[in-house]
Amino acid sequence: MRKPNPWTWIPSLYFAEGLPYVAVMTVSVIMYKNLDISNTDIAFYTSWLYLPWVIKPLWSPFVDLIKTKRWWVYTMQLLTGGGMAGIAFTIPMDFFFQATLAFFWLMAFSSATHDIAADGFYMLGLSEENQAFFIGIRNTFYRFAMLTGQGLLVMLAGFLEKTTERIPFSWSIVFFILAGVFTGLALWHKFILPRPISDVQRTGIKPQTILTEFGKTFAGFFQKKGIVAALLFMLTYRLGESQLVKLASPFLLDKHGVGGLELETAQVGFAYGAVGVISLLFGGILGGIAISASGLKKCLWPMALAISLPNLAYLYMAYALPENIYIINACVGIEQFGYGYGFTAYTMYLMLFSNGEYKTSHYAICTGFMALGMMLPGMASGWIQEMIGYQYFFIWVMICCIPAFLTIPFLKIRE
Question: What is the C-alpha separation between 394 and 39, in angstroms, rounded?
Fold first, then answer.
C-alpha cells in the first residue's frame, strides 16, 4: 500500500465532498433569493434536492462491488464539475429556474455517489486510531468547503452584482469558477490518493451476486443492536438545523419590513466566509481533539448542546434586529462554532455504528437517514416561516432541538 501523508489528501477530499453539497443546498438558496424566487419555493424545491442523499444507500452496494472507491471518487468529481458548468450556462436563460434545478439534480446525484466512495475510502485508507484523530480535520474541511461556498463565493457574487449590475451574469461567473475548481480537484485526487490493499475491484460479479450482497447489506444494518434508538437519533439530531439552514441566509437578506436584517449579498458572504470559517475551524478541531482524548460517550451531551443552543443567536437577531454588523457577525460566529463542535459527535457516532463487514454501505445508510432528517423538515420550513414570521420561526427551531436530547440516553455507544 502506497501511503502518502494523510494531510495531503484528507483536507482536499472532504473539501471536494462539501463544496457541491453547499452549492446545492445553500448557494442555490442565496442565488434564487437574489433572482426573486419566494421563500416557500426556495425551501421546497431545494429541500427536494436532498433526495439523492436520502436514497443513496440503494446504490451504495454497487459502489462497493463495481470498480474501486478510488475510481468512483475522481470520476464523480469530474461529473460534478460538469453539472456546475451546466448551471453557469443556463442561469441567464428565461427558463433558468427549471434548467438550473435540473443541473442541481445532476450535481446532487453525482455528489451523493461521491460521498459513498469518499467516506468508504476514508475508512479503508486509515487505521481506526487515525480515523478518530482526523475526524475533526475532515469535518473542519468539509465545513470549510461549505463556508467557502456560502462565504467567499457569495462575496464574489455580491461584488460582481454591484460592479456589473447584472445578477444572472454574476452568478454564472461564480459557477464557472466552481466548475474549474472541481476539475482541478479531480485531477489532483487521481494522482495523490493512496491505494489501500483492501480497495480492489471485485472479480466475477454477477447480477445475482449484487442482489445477494444488497440484501445482506440492508439486513445486516437493521439487525444491529439498538437500531431503533440509533435511527431516531440520526433523524432528530439535526432537526433544528435542517430548518435554520434554509432560512438563515434569506433572513439576513430580507427587508426590514418582513423581519429580515436587510444585509447586502457581500456582507452575508463575509459573515459566513470570514467569521464563520474561523469559528468553524476552531470548533471542529476542538471537537476532534476532545473525542480523541475522552471518547464519544463523555463528549456526546456537551456536543449535542453545542449544536443546538447557538441557534439562540438567530432568535436574538430576529427580535433585536441589530444593525451593527459586528454584532451580526458575532452571532453567526457563535452558531458556526457550535455547529463545528457539535457535528463532530454526530459523525463519529455514525462511523462507530457502521463498523462491520459492510461498513461503507452501512455508513451510506446512516447518512441517508441523516439526509432524510434534513430533507423533510427543510421542505416545510419556508412555508412555516412565511406563515408565522421570522421571530416565531426561530422559536420553533429551538423547540425542534428537544427530540434529539430525548434519544441520547437510549444510545448504545461502542468506544
Answer: 15
